[in-house]
Amino acid sequence: MTKPLITIAVTGLNAIDSPGPGVAVIRGLREAASFDVRIIGLAYESLEPGIYMHHLVDHTYQIPYPAAGIDALKERLEYIISKEKPEVLIPNFDAELYSFMKLEKHLNTLGVHLFLPTFEQFEERHKVNLPEFGKKYSIDVPRGFVVSDASEIFSISKELEFPFMVKGKWYDAYVAYNFEQARTYFNKVSAKWGLPVVLQQFIHGTEYNVIGLGDGAGNTIAAVPMRKQYITDKGKAWAGISVDDKKLMALTRRFVESTKWRGAFELELMRTNQGKYYLMEINPRIPAWVYLAVGVGQNIPEALTHLALGKKVVPFEKYDVGKLFIRYAFDMIVDRSEFETISSTGEL
Amino acid sequence: MKINKDLAISENGFLFNPATGESFTANPMAFEIISMLKEGQRSEKIIEWATQHYLVEKSTVEKDLHDFFGLLRLHQLSVEND
């Protein structure tokens, strides 16, 4: 029986040392049992490796950075849609999600379907709102303070014992062991990611992450917990192993049920030596290690595509425990003409 | 002391705790003790086995076994004391 062919646009093709999830998402889509795919890559930079992975990506278009504004993105997407007619679009960056959420209804009218969190879900899980989120849903989170002015750090450092974390609004986190370091990191992350900056209690423990998918009605369609085995200097998992922790799964289901989460997500948790989990962050998108979930039996990109197309999806009930993912770097040899084409025409 | 029933133990002494994702390599003696615990053997039996197979005083085995049990507890490889 021939499978239907679906055209899917995917962002996050920057498969670098701190990778965007796009390439892993595409690998999942390519392995989907229920459909074949034609992949349209959406890239911000002409050196994003996914652009040149022709076995994974059929055609790539450059799109404007979120800073260029929603109108610029809308115009570019309209052009791409008129050419490629994608049925589904999967955005994979935190910083771009807001723009795509804003454009979701408009894109629907053009025949493009997304499956994203609601604005309320997106905002309340934001790291600047995490303490309130923890209180509302009875989930343990580290103590945190939102800071917009460096002068506030001194008074907060009396309440938060050193060391504590200094976190950027979108990205970047540093451990500050004294006031001077806290101020330096505040300046560093605010210069790069803007204000506010989050000062967060340092939780000592082991890092666990859960990748999941909620259907928007409170049902957990997929969930795979992973223990980070090897962490890069940027704090990214370079290797991880799927685990079977009932507490972690219960926490995930409670999160999805109480928030009625719509779309993919990643929970970042810290497990103390006493076995207590603290929710450190909620990423409202598919994480870069999604291929582990595919490898252990839960093809989340495939399930998300069905949900985006309005189809019913039966929740996954199991996954293989004790399977590792180990990331690797790979050098591609690319002809200059390809680089020229994407750089000068904005597509390849 | 009982061994966590979910603990995966390979013949070569590789241990994997599926709940935490941690893995360990047990030396032959540790592997033997963990296997005996998994079979439900009590401390007395393990001490008897160790003194028969190794040139060691019973009091030394008792102390070392106590330390070893502490390690198992620390890494959540055990579930309860006997």
What characteristic shape of chain B results from the CA principal axes? globular
Question: What would you call the structural class of chain A?
Answer: alpha+beta
Domain module count of chain B: 1
Major sheet of chain A: order of its strands?
13-12-9-10-11-14
Topology as H/E string of chain B? EEEEHHHE
Can you give the helix content of chain A as a percent range?
A: 25-40%
Can you summarize the main beta sheet of chain A?
6 strands, antiparallel
Structural class of chain B: alpha+beta
Say how many strands of chain B there are.
5
Count of helical regions of chain A: 11
**What's the helix count of chain B?**
3
- Counting DSSP E segments of at least 2 residues, the number of strands of chain A comes to 14
| CATH class category of one domain in chain A | Alpha Beta
> Largest interface: which pair?
A-B, 16 and 10 residues
Assembly classification: heterodimer
Architecture overview:
The complex is a heterodimer of chains A (348) and B (82). The mean pLDDT of chain A is 93. With 348 residues, chain A is an alpha+beta fold. Among the domains of chain A are: 5-115 and 331-345, Rossmann fold; 143-201, 2-Layer Sandwich (Dna Ligase, domain 1), CATH 3.30.1490. Chain A has helices spanning 22-30, 70-84, 94-109, 119-124, 130-137, 152-159, 179-193, 246-259, 290-295, 300-308, 336-345, and strands at 5-11, 36-43, 59-62, 88-90, 144-147, 164-167, 173-176, 197-201, 206-215, 220-231, 237-242, 262-271, 277-283, 324-326. Chain B is α+β, with helices and mostly antiparallel strands and 82 residues long. In chain B, 48% of the residues lie in helices and 16% in strands. Chain B contains three helices and five strands; from the N terminus they run ββββαααβ. A three-stranded antiparallel sheet of chain B has the order 2-3-4, with no helix packed on it. The interface between A and B is medium-sized, with 16 and 10 residues.
